[in-house]
Amino acid sequence: MKALFVSALMLTTALMGAAPASAQSKPAIKNIVLVHGAFVDETSWDGVAAILTAKGYHVTAVKNPLTSLADDVAATKAVVDAQDGSVVLVGHSWGGVVIGEAGDDAKVASLVYVSAFAPDKGETISALAASGPATPGVAAIRPDAKGYLTIDPAVFPSAVAGDLPKQIGEHLAAHQMPINHTAFDEPAKVAAWHEKPSWYVLSAKDLVLDPHAQAFFAERMKAKVTSVEGSHASLASHAKDVAAVIEAAAGAK
Asked: Cα(64)–Cα(62) distance, rounded to whole angstroms?
């Protein structure tokens, strides 16, 4: 699948800009590993990755299979293990569940959650989602004949990517990456945020993961919080802000 967020990437790099590496201070941690959420692929991180790469970071986006929590954690751990030195591990949406498990690794120095779930040990996404009213995005999730989930394409652009150009939301809706429904029922075995310093980007206009739920996760993990007036796709629409939080987690001087 070709760059789902290509237009957003152009906006973030051209309009916001990314300074050349020579103009930036050397980061304390150079390795950034980005973990995507459900329904999209690793290209959802392209805007953030471009900004950080231009500043001298070594950035790798994990390609999650979305077949199970264990499979996504294994894919993420393989990327973490391949890094030379300490890592800032970043997760968007469902990716927050993944980094909570994969973050239990000696190489992971800090965690960054972007509009992300942050379950504690034993919690499931299904149970957490059922604890409050369904958001428009969650209410529009549909299973296929094999139990893989997507969001109704008619609802996706407004619910997931309301602050991106309409054509981008429609393209994303038409090229979704289904996730196995069983992943949402798998209890978290580890919650690395208990041991690792954490940052949270809260998307105040999120129609998939309720901002109140995001605030709950962030407060519970005692994360350093940055709020953006963004949709669930704030990693693209507010790429510069998200990149700045990741830099903070990397300890740039």
From this structure: 6
